[in-house]
Amino acid sequence: DAKTTQPTSMDCAEGRAANLPCNHSTISGNEYVYWYRQIHSQGPQYIIHGLKNNETNEMASLIITEDRKSSTLILPHATLRDTAVYYCIVRSAGGTSYGKLTFGQGTILTVHP
Amino acid sequence: EAGVVQSPRYKIIEKKQPVAFWCNPISGHNTLYWYLQNLGQGPELLIRYENEEAVDDSQLPKDRFSAERLKGVDSTLKIQPAELGDSAVYLCASSLGGTGLTDTQYFGPGTRLTVL
């Protein structure tokens, strides 16, 4: 399984964009990058995923570099409710581990007033 | 549309007692997952079901843990007997399944187990 590296923690001011980086230098050609977040005492919440093109939905944007070795999750206008642990995951694409999500430590994002 | 439902939300038991967790996936989702999350860590996969079949249970401690999904819908995870180290959050997730390269998992709220 491709591993990901994320900063342990980040801060962001309310109303500003939060840019969360992730390195996944060993990603394979058919493996997707997924982002989840987990607010205290809740289950992980799906945010967005992508293969090689940039993606945007109502929650966030995902920017994947051309070589696919890193990506950035962008929350365009962070609110206090976006304070959570954000997980960047490379979804396994084959064998018995097909579809497996391997969670790392994630990034603790704190949005402050 | 209802999300993944789990019960109970909280459970406190004494060590050596049995415990069971129940999960009802999103309607129409064929794949079901059980994860374990220790405090301060990310979730770790215990078992994955495709319909009734457990297709990946390599991380399930089979000496005390068992799981079933008899009719390919809801599922039960059991621990017997529970140990102090089993205190954690047990998460259930589901996805549509299939062989596509993208198959998003949706998580339930989890069951927080405390073993005394």
Task: Outline the structure in words.
The complex is a heterodimer of chains A (113) and B (116). Chain A has 113 residues and is an all-beta fold. Chain A has no helices and 9 strands. Chain A has strands at 9-13, 18-23, 32-38, 45-50, 55-56, 61-64, 70-75, 84-91, 107-112. In chain A, the strands form 2 sheets. Chain A has a 5-stranded mixed sheet, with no helix packed on it. Chain A has a 4-stranded antiparallel sheet with strand order 2-7-6-5, with no helix packed on it. In chain A, a hairpin with a 4-residue loop joins strand 5 (55-56) and strand 6. Chain A is globular, with a radius of gyration of 14 Å. Chain A starts with 8 loop residues before the first strand and ends with a strand. Chain B is mainly beta and 116 residues long. Chain B contains no helices and 11 strands. Chain B has strands spanning 5-7, 10-13, 19-24, 31-37, 44-50, 53-56, 65-68, 75-79, 88-95, 106-107, 111-115. Classes of the chains: A mainly beta (113), B mainly beta (116).
Give a short synopsis of this structure:
Chain A is built from no helices and nine strands. With 113 residues, chain A is mainly β. The model of chain A has no long low-confidence stretch (mean pLDDT 92).
